[in-house]
Amino acid sequence: MNDDQFAAAIEDLRRWKRTHLPMLDRPAGIEVFDYLLRRDGGAVPLTPLYRSAIHSEPTVRGMLQEFIARKLAQVETDPDDNRRKATRPTALMLSLAEEYRIRVCALGTRITHSK
């Protein structure tokens, strides 16, 4: 893979990411994405997300709202206590995360095999 091909492959990956996962262009988006994916698709309380976040709670809340608006996350009320809420990634988010992983790995393979 020459430099032009490498640059084109990186731009293709960035274009796909901007189209499907534009929140990952911001650090808070990466943080929410990572938090949701590390929980194996299960619902997790919102409070630990806000408390463990590097970014301010309003920033993280706003980013989570963007995930929800894009149908990548959903918020649920705890059936035992209506005051507690949890979030989980949707099937769409899990699918896009897998596609992103495949694309990153494929790019890495192309780079490795071209040496």
Summarize the structure.
The protein is an alpha+beta fold and 115 residues long.
Textual characterization of the structure:
This protein has 115 residues and is of the alpha+beta class. The chain has a single domain (3-113), classed as Winged helix-like DNA-binding domain superfamily/Winged helix DNA-binding domain (Arc Repressor Mutant, subunit A, Orthogonal Bundle). Helices cover 63% and strands 15% of the residues. The protein is built from 5 helices and 3 strands. The protein has helices at 3-20, 27-37, 46-52, 57-69, 91-113, and strands at 44-45, 73-78, 81-89. It has a 3-stranded antiparallel β-sheet with strand order 1-3-2. Helix 1 (3-20) runs antiparallel to helix 5 (91-113) and helix 2 crosses helix 4 (57-69). The mean pLDDT is 89.
Please write out the topology.
Layout: H1 3-20, H2 27-37, E1 44-45, H3 46-52, H4 57-69, E2 73-78, E3 81-89, H5 91-113
Antiparallel strand pairs: 1-3, 2-3
Helix pairs in contact: 1-5, 2-4
* Rounded radius of gyration (Å): 17 Å
Residue-averaged pLDDT: 89
Query: Which stretches are low in confidence, meaning pLDDT under 50 for 5 or more residues running?
Result: none
CATH H-level superfamily: Winged helix-like DNA-binding domain superfamily/Winged helix DNA-binding domain
Return the structural class. Answer: alpha+beta
Strand tally is: 3
How many domains? Answer: 1
> Biggest β-sheet: count, sense, barrel?
3 strands, antiparallel
* Secondary structure: helix percent: 55-70%
